[in-house]
Amino acid sequence: MKRKICFVTGTRAEYGLLSRLMEKVDQDLDLRLQIIATCMHLSAEFGNTYQEIESDGFKIDKKVEMLMSSDSPEAICKSMGLALISFPDAYKHLNPDLIVLLGDRFETFCAAAAATVCRIPIAHIHGGECTEGAIDEAFRHSITKMSHLHFTSTEQYRSRVIQLGEKPESVFNVGSLGVENISKLTLLSLKQLENKLDFILHKKYLLVTLHPQTLDSDDGSNHAKQLLNALAIFKDINVIFTKANADAGGRAINTAIEQFVTTNPDRARIFPSLGKIVYFSVLKYAEAVVGNSSSGIIEAPSFKIPTVNIGDRQAGRVQSRSVINCSSRSKAIIDALKIALSSQYKESLVDIFNPYEKKETAINIKNQLKFFQLRNILKKEFNNHISSI
After folding, report:
1. Quick check: pTM over 0.85?
2. pLDDT for the residue numbered 388
3. Long-range contacts of the stretch 313-316 (C-beta < 8 A, 24+)
């Protein structure tokens, strides 16, 4: 009987990371791929990105509607309640042998909590990481404790998962799926990209993504204002924005950016979603990545371009020396951008190494999903032997 591997995905970025692994599972004759799409994938506001999953040739087995029309903390909690109500029905219908989750978002936490109660083993990707400026920090480590197989992106993160009490034999440092995707995908030429985006790219441009700092009292609007004030100084550089995610405060950021784009139509565009090929193609030709997305930390170094990492949302992550950290104040962002855009700094990045890169990430994860012994896996013992890391 085929082992049923069920992927739960809620965002464009997460699916972009998972898609190649999903393809490997689907191609394996001994495995059966199942997909649950939820959260931002099912929202018109965020681009109905479930359609990207389907256009890639995958069948979505279940759609779990959960996202409220507001992004206040109260609405996020209600969305989590809807998720917890809905995931068990999807699991009962699909009856998977293993749930695969990536990352640390609130819908991922809900998927893990429901799987735990439903007694379904969980494989977790990208555990052990730190994002000290976001509530994702707590969600991520909680998911680790509910999971049974762990695939980390660096050895330091593997050590942290073991530090949380997980057995070393169930924790694998496999590198980042996103970094591997870069080397496996055929990216667009600059002309193809211009046609796809309907935007002239022969001028220098920045790729900008700003998410809420969810442990901060600001609703996102002030952080957006500080960033946009800084970008206004660099009038000779175009800007491609991708929308903030569905965290509390995300809509305030998107509204501010949309106003900036309306005021600067010749040099700025905003997209709810780019898809993995277009996104990485945009990344390839960008002068720098700006904002606080994990992509600026994890994938951007593979293109040997600078990242201006704003605020503390990503604080604690392993970083390449291509990352320039700064506060959320306009002056600090301007200073960091001047460094990033300087020819001297760019030349220094020619030989940088991406700490998230390892060979055959997707294959190594797929093989563990296929062969790891699941009998009695639900009965976890706390690993007290930290010296065994």
Report:
1. yes
2. 46
3. 313/131, 313/133, 313/134, 313/211, 313/212, 313/213, 313/214, 314/131, 314/133, 315/130, 315/131, 315/132, 315/133, 316/129, 316/130, 316/131, 316/132, 316/137
